[in-house]
């Protein structure tokens, strides 16, 4: 049954990806996102679950579909929570670049964090590094531990970081260790998951990105045996209250 559901969910993300693909390189990220959202929502109606969206396109008054709290699926067991990102990397698609994905995470009802739409500090590594890195530890120490766990030199470690002004200090700290940095323009789910695969070219993800995307990355790494640590980074009193 689980295998059958996995295939059904794969078709959901496939439909979103194919719909968004028609907008690659056309400079319209909103149209690409709308196409992915619509295709994913339609395909959900064929899936044999009683699902509730806990991470989606926003609140009911912010999104016409795949909003937080929306029920999806055929309404039959199992009862599940669903986190979706129909198009992670809208700018990537609009600019005709590579790295965008359609992604979702599914878990038993009540087991997914209902992450608010705010920033989250993240660190993601693969199975070999599980338990070796910590958010509280200095960047230098985490990179050394990853190198030890993977049997590599520090200079051979590749760290993926979103190319944002807020990451300037992290970038400098990583460079001081001699490790490699791969800066990405958008979309940190894919490289976060890639850290769990040997020969992916990614050993570690560091930095601050979206909290909803962090939950999806965490779910993927849990399935793959990797390690994901995070904490919310509210920017104002309103976000703290959430």
Q: Explain this structure to me?
A:
By secondary structure, this protein is α/β, with parallel strands linked by helices. The protein folds into 2 domains: 2-108, Fructose-1,6-Bisphosphatase, Chain A, domain 1, CATH 3.30.540; 119-241, D-Maltodextrin-Binding Protein, domain 2 (3-Layer(aba) Sandwich), CATH 3.40.190. Helix content is 36%, strand content 24%. It has 8 helices and 9 strands. It has helices spanning 2-21, 29-44, 90-94, 139-150, 168-177, 189-194, 211-224, 237-241; strands at residues 50-55, 71-72, 79-88, 101-108, 119-125, 158-162, 180-184, 204-210, 227-233. The strands form 2 sheets. A 5-stranded mixed sheet has the order 7-6-8-5-9, with helices on both faces.
Q: Any chance you could write out the topology, listing elements then pairs?
A:
Blueprint: H1 2-21, H2 29-44, E1 50-55, E2 71-72, E3 79-88, H3 90-94, E4 101-108, E5 119-125, H4 139-150, E6 158-162, H5 168-177, E7 180-184, H6 189-194, E8 204-210, H7 211-224, E9 227-233, H8 237-241
Parallel strand pairs: 1-3, 6-7, 6-8
Antiparallel strand pairs: 1-2, 3-4, 5-8, 5-9
Helix pairs in contact: 1-2
State the order of secondary-structure elements, H for helix, E for strand. Answer: HHEEEHEEHEHEHEHEH
Number of strands: 9
Architecture of the largest domain, according to CATH? Answer: 3-Layer(aba) Sandwich
Supply the number of structural domains. 2
- Mean pLDDT across the residues is 94
Which parts are unreliable, with pLDDT below 50 for 5 consecutive residues or more?
A: none
User: Which CATH top level class of the largest domain fits?
Assistant: Alpha Beta
The major β-sheet equals: 5 strands, mixed
- The number of distinct helices, counting runs of at least 4 residues, comes to 8
* Radius of gyration, whole Å: 18 Å
What name is given to the CATH topology of the largest domain?
Answer: D-Maltodextrin-Binding Protein, domain 2
Instruction: Please state roughly what percent of the residues sit in beta strands, choosing from under 5%, 5-15%, 15-25%, 25-35%, 35-45% or over 45%.
Output: 15-25%
């Amino acid at each position: 049954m689980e295998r059958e559901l996995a295939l059904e969910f794969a078709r959901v993300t496939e439909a979103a990806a194919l719909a968004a693909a028609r907008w690659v390189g056309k400079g319209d990220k909103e149209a690409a996102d709308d196409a992915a959202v619509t295709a994913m929502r339609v395909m959900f109606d064929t899936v044999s679950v009683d699902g509730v969206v806990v991470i989606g396109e926003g609140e009911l008054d912010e999104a016409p579909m795949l909003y937080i709290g929306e029920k999806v699926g055929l309404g039959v067991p199992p009862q599940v929570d669903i986190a979706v990102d129909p198009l992670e990397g809208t700018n990537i698609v609009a600019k005709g670049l590579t790295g965008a994905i359609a992604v979702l995470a599914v878990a038993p009802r009540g087991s997914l964090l209902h992450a608010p739409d705010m920033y989250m500090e993240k660190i993601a590594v693969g199975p070999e590094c599980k338990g070796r890195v910590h958010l509280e530890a200095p960047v230098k120490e985490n990179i050394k531990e990853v190198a030890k766990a993977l049997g590599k030199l520090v200079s051979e470690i590749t760290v993926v970081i979103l190319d944002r002004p807020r990451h300037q200090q992290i970038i400098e700290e990583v460079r001081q260790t001699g490790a490699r940095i791969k800066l990405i323009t958008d979309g940190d789910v894919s490289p976060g998951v890639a850290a769990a695969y040997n020969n992916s070219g990614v050993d570690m993800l560091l930095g601050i990105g979206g909290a909803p995307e962090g939950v999806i990355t965490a779910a993927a790494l849990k399935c793959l045996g990797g390690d994901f640590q995070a904490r919310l980074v509210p920017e104002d009193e309103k976000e703290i209250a959430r």
